[in-house]
Prior knowledge:
- The chain is α+β, with helices and mostly antiparallel strands.
- It has 1 helix and 5 strands, in the order βββαββ.
Amino acid sequence: MSVRERYRFREYTVQHDQTKPTTGTARCLWEAEDGGPGCDWTSGLPMALDALTKALGKHCAETDHTEYGQTVRHSVTVVPGKWDGEA
Ligand SMILES: [Zn+2]
């Protein structure tokens, strides 16, 4: 008895979907110098980047906290290529 296997390959391309908005969230990374609790401020639900920039500026103006972690979400589309050997 013999087993025969055949492998096929194709490439995939990831494209930025320009029709969907880029959104983001942020978290304040400020930590107390005495080791106490840090700032737990977050920007909340994902929002457009210009709104996120305003939210960050407002928090900084109110607290003087200047370090943040930001998560940005881009929508993408994955386009499968042709299988090897296809014209
Ligand atoms: Zn803060």
